[in-house]
Prior knowledge:
Blueprint: E1 7-14, H1 22-38, E2 42-44, H2 46-49, H3 57-68, E3 71-76, H4 84-96
Parallel strand pairs: 1-2, 1-3
Amino acid sequence: MATNTIDPKNVYICGPWYGENTDERFREFIHLSRMIRDRGFHPFFPPVFTLGEWPPRGEYMKHAMVNLLKCQYIYLIRGWQESSTAVAEYLTARFLD
């Protein structure tokens, strides 16, 4: 996603959030976030910018897209294809590339 307002080291981690196994998914996002940071990049992922209880999907996606647009790269975790929000994030990144 090449624009003039993004940091070339920002990586958006994309995957399923809503539904079952939220704690397991959160641990996976944290693990990937650490791996990405250890390689000198800046990870972005939904729980970091979502406060309190999970917002309605529309509100969640507004926050997700704002953060996605700050990133040069997108990292797709397993199962992303089964998540409508992750698919929307992927298609947005692909469209803007």
